[in-house]
Amino acid sequence: MARFTLTAPEGHQLPTDVVSYGADVAREDTLRLLGPLEGRRVLDLGCGGGHNAIALARSGAKVIGVDADAEQIAAARAAAEREGLRLELHHAPLAELAFVRADTVDACVSAFGLAQVDDLDRVFRQVDRVLKPEHSFVLSLPHPAFAVVDGDDPELRVRRSYWERTPQDGDLPRTIAEIFTSLGRANFRVDALIEPEPLATSPRSFSWSPAMAVLPATLILRARKQGS
Fold this sequence. Notes:
The chain is α/β, with parallel strands linked by helices. The chain has one domain (28-225): Vaccinia Virus protein VP39 (Rossmann fold). The protein contains five helices and seven strands, in the order αβαβαββαβαββ. A seven-stranded mixed sheet has the order 3-2-1-4-5-7-6, with helices on both faces. The protein is globular and about 50 Å long.
């Protein structure tokens, strides 16, 4: 089944002009979830091949990119060099951010980078540690409702329960309530929850599936670190 990933198939390029949160949905230039980026220190968690990290740097941000996949970090480094941009890149588990000091990050973004992370609570606690109080953490994940149907089936028949716990394509299924609760446990207050409709444009991306026309494939949340 087609889905948004951090790695484009051969011959395809993910956009690097504006931060993307998912396939065929509005991007940061429309949603405006991160606010001004010029001069801000931004953590891209699960940065993959660096498409969003490059977009952030182009907007004037000082970017720290982290990914657990060494090949993805190498690809991000090569992409930044091609673009003539400076990125601080780290190959590390997403829950191990000891190289970032507490309360020093102005914003954190993660676009589908946490879909395969087993311990979200631990990751969220680390983001809370490094983020400045009252600053934003914007993340997108596969929408749990989208996994219920077979996106390649023209009749979109239900194939699994919304509460199914078996991983799908490596992604670990979570309900919206579970994500919301995990953020709250880590000292975050969710102030935006978006289930974006697909853009009325064509051609579609390589991730497009007919199911995306009737079910949200992407879930976007913005949470703020509480405290002063």
